[in-house]
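Let's sit down with a protein and look at its sequence and fold side by side. Go ahead whenever you are ready, and we will take it from there.
>
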Amino acid sequence: MTQLHVTGSPSESELAAISEGLTAFNANDVGPSGRQPLAVLIRDDTGKIIGGMSGYTAWGWLFTQWLFVPETLRGQGMAGKLLEAAEAEASARGCLGAWIDTFNPQALKAYQRQGYAIFGELPDFPAGRSRFFLQKKLSPR
């Protein structure tokens, strides 16, 4: 008999079962994703990582999962530089587009300055704010 089990602490093997099942389904449905990690790191003078962006490319798209600029570097166009570097690598990988989401008003403006356009909004996520989903066309090389 099939059972449902709710947990707030799934094991790595439990999460892997879900991931592997979905990956196999999607590969059969639309073809392999070609998923590859992509990161652009900001290092200080000692080489310590103090920020950057992390995401991946898959199915011809760049997804920026995390982007963090330390307070000392904000307001200097660093988010744009991170995205430019990631987009260049994504284009070299043959990507046609990029997408990112945010609920931070300053980040939203920075991404729009970088050429990203809103394609969706989730109001009250978190409460009192909206989460915006943005995309940008890339030119594959």
About this structure: The beta strands are 36-43, 49-58, 61-68, 97-102, 117-123, 130-137. The CA atoms of residues 64 and 115 lie 14 Å apart. Helices lie at 12-30, 78-92, 105-113. The mean pLDDT is 97.
